[in-house]
Amino acid sequence: MKIVPISVPTPFYVGPVNVYLVKEEPLTLIDTGPKTREASEALKEGLRRERVRVSDIKRIVLTHAHEDHCGLAKQLRDEAKDAEVFVHGWETGHRAARLEYDEHRVLLERAGVPAEDIAALRRMYEGVRKYADALEDHEHAELEDDDELRFERGSLRVVHTPGHTPGSCSFLREADRTIIAGDCVLKRITPNPVLSPDPVDPTRRFRSLAEYLVSLARLRSLSPTLVYGGHGEPVEDYEELFHRYLRAINERQAEVIRLLPKTGATAWDISREMFPGADDVHRFLAVSEAVAHLDLAHSENKIALELSDGREVYRKA
Ligand SMILES: [Zn+2]
Ligand SMILES: [Zn+2]
Predict the structure, then answer these.
(1) Distance 26 CA to ligand 1 centre (A)
(2) CB 267, CB 111: distance < 8 Å
(3) Which tens digit of pLDDT belongs to each residue from 172-192?
(4) Which of 104-113, 126-135, 219-228 has the lowest mean pLDDT?
(5) Any idea which ligand is nearest the CA of 66?
């Protein structure tokens, strides 16, 4: 069972995305790239190099539903005729054209984001959305933790690794403990735990960073020999990366606590302090980052949190 990485360009700041071809029957693609002509051409060129046609693809498995990873899923599914698409049930939103704007708006308001910035973020969402086709409910099947994706020779085990998004999944080849981890593990950057509604109770926000730490530890318990990430080169030394991530998370948490003024501050205030120049999508990622770290610090009783005028205000404990 051969795993072939194919680098596909994206219009996003993160740069190219890695799509993985599992060259074994049933022929399987893990992630697809965004819905652009450039991405589609690069993917097809990558398949041609492996003497694979789109019509040979039987299965499309998504690590998560961000546009750079899932954008071409519907097109490929249609082109490959009966290809089955799999994604975790917690990746609502993009996959089924159900981006929960209202739930997101509530989360942003609570985080202290001003109305005009919420409006700008909404326009940004609309802009990003065109890079993926939505999948209707009947057009995909759901992945569950510990599912086995069987191949003629070998298999991949589904490891639910929430954090970057609630339904992020990794795939373990047990024979040599190789893992395909999507955006859960990236060699050069610490993945952003993106602000999102809790899939079980959408009126709450998903505890992304706490979940992410559990996922990192779970991957560690699998003693991976090689981890293929969603962007950049594969990671050969997961142990080193694990400790580097933990250090980065601890440092960021200390910074967030240090930035809290006596009078208290919202996640938005803190994000503007941490990343004053952040614009567009980065403004949103900055709030995500602040919320994630404040949530974690609060859950560890390091800071206090109270609701004031519908906004969450954090204070030093
Ligand atoms: Zn992502
Ligand atoms: Zn990505």
Answers:
(1) 26
(2) yes
(3) 999 999 999 999 999 888 878
(4) 126-135
(5) 1
